[in-house]
Amino acid sequence: MKQRRSRKKSTSSDSDPKSTHSSSPSANSTSFIGHELLEWQGENHAVNRALAIDTRTFDTKEALLISSKIRKDQEAFLGVLVARGITPSFFATTTASEATGSQIVVKSTPGSDLEAMVKEKTVRLSQVSFAVKASKFGSNSFHVPKGMNNKWSWKLLLGMSKNALQIVPSLQEDASHAISDKPGTGLPIDVTLLTSDISFFADLNENAHGQAALTFWDSAIPYFQNSEISSIQIVIAKTGMLALQIPPTESENDDDTINRVRQPSTMARQHEIGIMRCIHSIQLAFAGRYEEYSKSSNSETTGPPIDIGLSSIDSSPVGYHFLARQWARQSVLAHAARKRLQFNLPETLEGTQCAISFDMSYEVLPFPVNGPRATSILNDLDVLSNSSVEVVQTVPLSSIDASLLFGLPITVKNGLENGFDQYQTMEVLVYSLLRNLQERELALLLQTAPQHGHTKSASQSLFGSAGSQMFLLMAKELPKSLSQQPQCGILFRYAEAIHLIGEASSTTQISLIDPDTESQLVDYVDQALDCLECSTPNPQYMEHVVPSSDKQSRLREMATSLATNMHA
C-alpha cells in the first residue's frame, strides 16, 4: 500500500477599584511577544497579554511573613518573563492608596516600563495589608475586612480586567504607525489575574463565592462579545499555609491557651477543605453559565467563544516557572504551529511501501522568544517542513560520535491527521518505528533538501541551507524503570564534511609520568567521583542545587563540630 502523501474603551464605575497608570509609552513598545505585539520576519503574529497581580494580605505576623515570600517569588517571576521575551504588554498590581476614603488602587504599567524596571532591578511589589480583629474573645473566628471579603475580591478582579482595556488600546495606537499596514493590532486581550489563597480565599463562604463568580461572568460577557477580551484566566498561587492565627487574650485561662496550641494543624486542614469547596463552587458557577451561553447561541447566530477559567499553581519558583513556560509555549505556537516532517519508509521485498509523518516542535528554546535567534531557530522548522526527506540507512547508537551532533534537538511525534482512520494508521506506523529503533538501538540517517521555491526561507533560518542536510532520528529514551514504549522521537542534526574544522585526534597515548604518580592520580579521580551525588538532574530544580564544594564544606564543619563536642 503506497500512500501519498473597533475596539470600544470601557469605563469603570465609581464602585470599582481606582486605577492609575503611567504615561503613554513610546512608539517602540512593539517589542513584546506572547500575547504581546511582535513582528516575525515581516509576518505579524501579534497577540496581547495583560497580567495583573493581587497583593492584598492580612496585617498579622504570619500573613505578612508568608506574603513577603510570595512577593519575592512574583518579582522573580516578572524577571523570568522579561528574560524569556514574553513581557506582557500591560502589567498592573494593587497598591495602597495615598488618598483618603480609599484603601486600595490598581497601579498600571506598560510592558516597556516593566522591562526597564527589571533590567534596572527596581521591580518592587507593594503589599496592601488589612487589619484583622477577632469576632469575640476566646474563639478562633474573626471578622474578614471589607477589602478581603469575596465580594470585594471579585470586584477587584473585574476592575483589573477593565483597567487592561483602558491602557492596552493606547499601546496599540502609539505603535500603529509602525504596524498600521498589518493585521493583528486590534487583537483582543488575554487577561491573567494572579492572586493567592491568602488574599482570594480569606472569605471561605462558598455560596457567596459562587454567586460572585456568576456576577463576574455576567459582567465580563460584554467584553468578549465586543472582541475586547479573548480569555480571562484566574490563577491562584497556593501556599497551603494558614495566615490567620488569633493570639490568646487576657480573658483566656491556661487550658484555653493549651487548646489553641493544639488547634493550628486542625485549622489548616479545615482551611484547605474550605478552599477546595470554594473552588468547586466557582467551577460549578462557570460551568453552568457556559452551558447556558452555549444553548442560547444557535448555529445561525454563534456568539464569540467565552474563555473564563480558574486554575492554581504552587506558590514557589517551580509553580511560576510552569506559568512562564506555558506562556512561552503559546508564543512559539503563534509562529510555528503545525510543522510536519514527512518521508517514505523503504520499500520491502514484497513491494510494500508506506509514507510516515510527524509533528515537529521544540521542547527547549534557550533564546528570548522575541529575539532574532528565536525567529531563526523557529524558521528552521519551516525549512524542514518544506524539504524533501529521504531515508539513507540505519546507524547503531553505540557508533554515533556525539561531537558531530549540533543544533537544538527537535521533538517529533504522531500528529493529527485529516481523518480518524488515517490518524490511527499513522499512530501505529509511528509507534512501531520508534519501538523498533529503541529495541534495536538504532537511529535513522535522513537526508533533506529544500524543495524548489523555498530556498529563501532557508536563508532566514539559523541552521538552514540551500543544499542537503543530514539528520539522525532516534527514539526518545525513557528511564528503564518506567517500562514504557517511546511515544516520541528526537531529531538531531548530523555534521557533514563541510562543517568540520577540527583535526583528527590520535588514538595512541604515550605516558611520560612515573607509574606511582600515575596510580595516585587515577585513585584520586576515582575517589573524587565517589564524593559526588549521582542522580538524574531535573531542570525545574537546578537553580536550587547546592554545589558539591558547598556540601563538602558543610560536612567538614559538621565533622569538626562533632569531634570538638566528643573531645569536650
UniProtKB/TrEMBL annotation:
Bias (Low complexity) ranges: 20-29
Superkingdom: Eukaryota
Region of interest: Disordered: 1-29
Biased composition (Basic residues): 1-10
Protein name: Uncharacterized protein
Species annotation: Phaeodactylum tricornutum (strain CCAP 1055/1)
